[in-house]
Amino acid sequence: MRFIQALLSFVGRALLVAIFLASALNHVQKFNGITEAVAAQGVPEPKIAHIVAVAFMFIGGVSVLLGFWARLGALLLALFLGAATFYFHAFWKLPTDSPEFEQQMIHAMKNVAILGAMVMIIANGPGAGAVDKRKVTLEV
C-alpha cells in the first residue's frame, strides 16, 4: 500500500507541476519576446521579473515534483501564480461583455485552482514518497 501511495503521490505531483516546467522551458526559449510582453503589462523591472518568474517556475516545479523542500517550492509557485494572475489575467478590469473577459476569467480561475493545490502542499507537505519524507543517515 505504501508503494501505491508513493507512486500516486509522485504522479499527482508530476501532473501538477508539468505546466510550470513546460512553461519555464518555453519562457527560456522565447525569453526576449516574453520579456517584451511582460513589459507591456506594466510589470516593474520586466527583465528581472521575468528571470525571477522562470526561476520560480523551474525551482518550484522541480521541488514539488521530487518532494524536496516541497513547501518552499509550492510557495514559489504560489507567488508566481499570484503575480501572473494579477498582471496577465485581470478579467475584473475588462467589461463583462468583452470577448476577452471570459477567456481571462477562465485563465484566472485555473490559476486559482492550482493555487489551491499549492496551499494544500504548503499546509500538508508533498505526500507519500517525497524526498522530504525519507530519513537520510550518514554512516562513517
Helix and strand layout, with pairings?
Layout: H1 2-29, H2 31-40, H3 46-66, H4 70-88, H5 99-124
Which regions are unreliable across 5 or more consecutive residues at pLDDT < 50?
none
Task: Determine the fraction of residues in helical runs and give it as a percent range.
Answer: over 70%
Number of strands: 0
Indicate the mean pLDDT. 93
Key structural traits:
140 residues, 74% helix
Task: Characterise this structure.
The chain contains five helices and no strands. It has 140 residues and is mainly α. Helix 1 (2-29) packs antiparallel against helix 3, helix 2 crosses helix 3 and helix 4 packs antiparallel against helix 5. The longest helix has 28 residues, at 2-29.
What is the compact description of this entry?
The protein is mostly helical and 140 residues long.
